[in-house]
Task: structure prediction
Amino acid sequence: MKPIGIIGGGLGGLSAACVLAARGHRVILFERNDWLGGKAAQLTGGGFRFDMGPTIVTIPSVLRRIFNEAGARMEDYLQLVRLDPQWRCFFEDGSVLDLAQDTAAMARTLDEFAPGTASGARYQEFIDYSARLDRISQRHFFYKPIGGLRDMFDWRSSFDPGMLGDVLAMRMGRSVAGTVRAFTPDARVAQMMDHFTQYVGSSPQGSPAVLCGIAHMQTDEGVWYPIGGTRAVPLALEKLARGLGVEFRTGVKIEKILSHAGTVTGVRTDAGEEVALSAVVSNCDSVRTHRELVSDEAGGRFERRRRYEPACSGVVLYLGLSKRYDHLAHHGFVFSRDPHEEFEWIYKKGEPAPDPTCYLAATTCTEPGTAPAGGEALYVLVHTPYLRPHHDWKKMLPEYRRVILEKLKRTGRMPDIEERIVYESTLTPQDIHERYHVLNGAIYGLASHGKFLGAFKPGNRSADLRGLYLAGGAAHPGPGMPMVLMSGWIAADTLDRDSAAASRPAGKTADTAA
Result:
């Protein structure tokens, strides 16, 4: 039997490799870079260590499920530390708010933070609503190769009251921002709640209300930091995969997915080698996969079916500080003065926001060894538009760095931050575009904009080429570490089921074959 090929060793590709190998398939993983893990990379310098991409783990049950496929325990490969408060929020008016995992405790905090607004009770109601959306996602959306609303429901049961209730609860046509503000009267609390959806890199004003389910996913399973940084996650998956017999070929770029009569037959590398394969899982950007790696005919069908918008990009400052700030939590947000203005600039005007929100990770709070004694490895991420033709980040970065640092000084209570910087590196949208081979420098794959269809990404089984499966942030169920890991599981599970069905004698179902 010919092996299965995986293009790209990011988290989705590693997840797919582990699941397929655990189910008995021979797997070859091709990675163009000399490291595995994609954006879950690491930067070191001056005695500091930074996660370059994701900085936390949410919904750890997804990761645990991948290890369970091989009869392994996640805890034997990773040490996770719970972060609580999950976030520390700094607002323009000088107020500070910690997001606690415990909903009742958070409600009490909100009543003190915004007295007379019933914010505590309304927050609990929001989390209850979010929990329902989470249950709907678990029932209809997750762990399935969904490509659109039609795939979610069995429409033959359209008169089933339970299903109709689920559809109504999704608030089709409503946005995240509108739904959040229906539950809270305080603008600061609403801004904090908006950012449950920032894991998907899209505007709360343009994203569908169903994404409010992310809030319960986070408060239910918690926010975690892996000792060793998030780089520890791909290292653990690589160790699991190698133990299962996965073959890794790093430093190998795939130039083309080969096919015959509309079916995958293999791949061709940049060295001209053709490798025969029974199927391919692409962990590359789904749009670029169809645009650059498959036949013109198959790629054209993909492009005509639906136009996808890149998610936002970002500027990251990796700041090695000589002295840490005691008022920072491990994970935090320094919020913009006006979220509507911020999102308008990023998502409508396509320009960097003049007063941005800064996402912070101060890792010495949990792992002191990420910086020299008394120092801090401060990660600062600011969302920016995806790359436009006129963006020249070599020219734009110095001024925008100044904007970011002024925001940290004023709202983040770090007036002397420039004096504390002893090491610095940066990542711009152009760097992200070139380093990770994503669409227009988008960190999070494809945007979740559209109040009806925004939650839907390309399905994990390609509709345009038999034997091609998709994983990663630009495939179902979308961006963010747990969703990307889930996409790899779904692609692998779908491929495995398709393979089993194809190998059964004609006329036999899975039950009769057993």
Remarks:
- The radius of gyration is 23 Å.
- Residues 237 and 506 are 37 Å apart (CA to CA).
- The first strand starts at residue 4 and ends at 7.
